[in-house]
Amino acid sequence: IGIYPETKHPTYFDSIGLSLEEPLVQILNENGYSDRNSPVFIQSFEVANLKDLNELTDVPLVQLFDATNARPYDFVVSGDSRTYADLVTPTGLAEIATYADGIGPWKRLIIPAAPVDFNGDGQPDDLNGDGVISDADYILQDPTSLIDDAHAAGLVVHAYTFRSDDRYLAPEYNGNPQAEYEQFFSLGLDGLFTDFPGTGFEVASRLYPYTQPDPLGGVGLLTTTNTTEA
Fold first, then answer.
1. What is the DSSP letter of 216?
2. Contact 225, 195 (CB under 8 A)
3. How far apart are CA 175 and CA 65, in angstroms?
4. Residues 6+ apart with CB under 8 A from 55
5. For residues 180 and 173, is the Cβ–Cβ distance under 8 A?
6. 172, 115 Cβ separation under 8 angstroms
7. Distance from C-alpha of 65 to C-alpha of 157, rounded to nearest angstrom
8. Rounded CA gap, 159 and 108, in Å?
C-alpha cells in the first residue's frame, strides 16, 4: 500500500511564509520515501510547486488537470494566460514531462460525455427520469487521444474519480460500474482514483494479475478517496 498526498493551495501557503514542499519532502525522507521506486506519488493542480518538488525529491510527481477552461492558480497569480486545455496538448504534456512523471486528469478529459435534447425544449434531457441532471443523463462521446499522447511523452495516466452510484454512471454502462473501469483500462489507463476500491480492485485484478508493486509500472494502480465502500 502506498500513499498519494496532494499539495493543497501551495501558492497561497507560499504567500504567507508556510511553504509546503520542504516539510513534505522532509517527512517523506524521514519515513523512507525518497526515490523513484518509493510507493508514493505527490500530486498538485498547480505547476510551480511541482517544479520545485522536482528539485527537492526523486519520488514520482503527478500534474493534476481541472476543467479545460480553468487555470492553475499559480498561473493566475503569475499572469500566465494558459489553461488546462493548453497543458493537455502534446506540447503541454512534453513540458510536464520535464518536471513530473504522470498526469491526473478528470476522467471526462479521456472519455467526454455530453447532454442531449431529444425533445427540443432547449434543456438537457433527464434520461433516467429522476428529476436531476447528472452523469447518468450524459451520453458518452468518442475517447480523446490524451492517454496515448501522455504515454508518448513518457507520462503515466491516473484518472479521477470513479464511483459506483447510479447518478455517476453514464447510461451506456447500464448501471454496471465494472463496465466503466473496463472501458478506461482498455484505453491504456495506468491507474485511477475511486470511491469504491473493492469494485475497482476486482476489475484491475482480473485484467492485470498482481505483480510486485512498481509506482511507475502502470496498469492496475488504484488509489482511493474513501477507505471503505459505501
1. T
2. yes
3. 27
4. none
5. yes
6. no
7. 11
8. 9
Cα–Cα distance for residue pair 93/88, rounded to 1 Å:
6
Give the dihedral sign, CA 131/172/164/157. negative
The residues facing 194 across adjacent strands are 162, 224
The set of cell numbers assigned to 65 is 488537470
**SS3 of 191, please?**
strand
Please give the domain boundaries of the chain with CATH numbers for all domains.
10-114+143-224 (3.20.20.190)
Contacts of 26 (CB under 8 A, 6+ apart): none
Helices (H), the chain: 10-15, 21-30, 48-56, 73-78, 84-87, 90-96, 146-152, 177-186, 197-207
For 80-133, what is each residue's pLDDT tens digit?
999 999 999 999 999 999 999 999 999 999 999 999 999 999 999 999 999 999
Structure-block grid coordinates of residue 71: 487555470
What are the tens digits of pLDDT across the range 29-79?
999 999 999 999 999 999 999 999 999 999 999 999 999 999 999 999 999
